[in-house]
Amino acid sequence: MHVARLSLTDFRNYRSAELSFERGATVIVGRNGQGKTNLVEAIGYLATLGSHRVSSDQALIRSGADAAIIRALLSAEGREVLLELQLNRQGANRAQVNRGAAKPRDLPRYAHTVLFAPEDLAIVRGEPSVRRRMLDGLLVQRIPRLAGVMADYDRVLKQRNSLLKSARARGLAASQLTTLDIWDERLVELGAELVDRRAELVAELREPLAAAYRSIVDDDHRPELQSVLSIDGADPDDEPTDAASATGGDVSDPETSGRAPTTERFASALRSLRRRELERGVTLAGPHRDDVRLLLNDLPAKGYASHGESWSFALALRLASAELLRRDSTTGDPVLLLDDVFAELDRMRRERLAAAVGDFEQVLITAAVLEDVPEPLAGRVIRIAAGAVVDELAPLRDAESSEAHMPSEASGV
C-alpha cells in the first residue's frame, strides 16, 4: 500500500495543501516549524485515529477554523480507495470511504502506517501511558473494531470514576453503591478483551523485536517485553530497579498455565479494591493502569539503557510493529513515516535504519536538513515552508529564498 495523494484543509498550519507521492522513499524537507511533521501526522491519524504528539483533536484544527479535513488516496495492488476525515471543534468527527458515509473507526481497515518520531524515546524512558498508546495504536490497525472497544471502555471508565467521586463526596459506604456493580460488569467485559489482546500482541512482538534490534545494533542485548497488569496486583508506578525484580516472569503471558480467566481476575481485583477506590474516587485496576516492561540484558531499559540503547530499543519496536503489519496485510506493506528521526541518530544507526526500511513499499521522511538522511532514501525531495509546498527536487538555496517571502502562520507547528 502507498499514499498516492494527500489533501489537507485547515489542518494544523495548512489552510490548504495538495501533495502527490510515489512508491519508494520521499524526503519532506523544511526548517523547524514549517509544517513537515503535520503532513505525516495527518497520514498517521487515518491509521490510528490519534496523533503521536497531542491527545486532543482540537490542536489539529487550524486556528480560527471550525473543522479540519484530511483526504488521502491510497493505492494497493492496482486498487484505489479514498479516505476522508473531518475533525470538528463541535460535535462528532465524520468520515467517508470512497465518498460513502462511514464511521471514523472504519478508516484503520484501509490505512496502515508505522510512525517513527523523536517522541519515541519516551516509549523507553517515559510513563506507562506512552507504552499503552503504542500498543493500542498497533492493535487498532491489526484489529480495527478494537477502536470501538477502547472508546466504549473509556466511556464506562469515566462514568465509573464519576460515580466513585460522587460517593466519596457524599461519604457513602461500599454497601450503598449498588449501581457500581452494573458499571463493574461492563468495565470487566470491555477491559478483559483489551488486556488479553495486549498480552497476545506483546507475545507476538518478541521475535520480530529481537531481529529488529540486532539489525540496528548488530549485537544481541536480549531485548524483552513483559506485561505488567494492575488486575494482578501490579502497580506500573513501582519500577523494578534490579535484575532480580525485573526477571520475575511475564505476569500476562497467555501461555501461563493455571491462571483464572481475565474476566474473573479483573472482577476479583475490583472487589478487593472497592474500599481504596471509594477513598480515592478513581478506578485502580484495568487496562488504563497497565504497563509493558522493557528489558535489555535482563535489566529494565528505563533505568539502565544508555541513550543509544534506548533509541535502538524504540526503533526496534517500531520496526517490529511494521513487520507484524506486513505479515497481516493483504494489501501490501504499511507506509513507514520517519519524522525527523535521522537527526537524533549517529551515523551507524542512520545507515542501519535506512537499510532496515529500504525494502518497504513507501517511506515518507521529514528532515530539517537533507544531509541528515542517508543517500539511499534521499531520491525524491519535497520542500515545505510556512504550511505550503515550496518546490519538489529543488536546490536548497532556491527553497530558502522562497521561504524568505512566505508569510508565517501563527498556528504553524
UniProtKB/TrEMBL annotation:
Q: Where does this protein come from, organism-wise? A: Agromyces kandeliae
> What are the subcellular locations of this protein?
Cytoplasm
Q: Which Pfam families match?
A: SMC_N
Classification via InterPro entries: AAA+_ATPase (IPR003593), DNA-binding_RecF (IPR001238), DNA-binding_RecF_CS (IPR018078), P-loop_NTPase (IPR027417), RecF/RecN/SMC_N (IPR003395), RecF_2 (IPR042174)
NCBIfam families cross-referenced by the UniProt entry:
recf
The entry's protein name is DNA replication and repair protein RecF
Single annotated GO MF: ATP binding
The entry assigns this protein to a family as follows:
Belongs to the RecF family.
Q: Which GO terms describe its biological process?
A: DNA replication; DNA synthesis involved in DNA repair; double-strand break repair; SOS response
Q: Where is this region: Disordered?
A: 230-263
Spell out the SUPFAM superfamilies in the cross-references: P-loop containing nucleoside triphosphate hydrolases
| Gene3D superfamilies cross-referenced by the UniProt entry | P-loop containing nucleotide triphosphate hydrolases, RecF/RecN/SMC, N-terminal domain
Alphabetically list the UniProt keywords. Answer: ATP-binding, Cytoplasm, DNA damage, DNA repair, DNA replication, DNA-binding, Nucleotide-binding, SOS response
Q: Which residues bind ATP?
A: 30-37
Residue span(s) of domain AAA+ ATPase? 22-396
Q: Which HAMAP family match?
A: RecF
Q: Which GO terms describe its cellular component?
A: cytoplasm
UniProt entry tagged with the keyword Iron: no
Q: What does this chain do? A: The RecF protein is involved in DNA metabolism; it is required for DNA replication and normal SOS inducibility. RecF binds preferentially to single-stranded, linear DNA. It also seems to bind ATP.
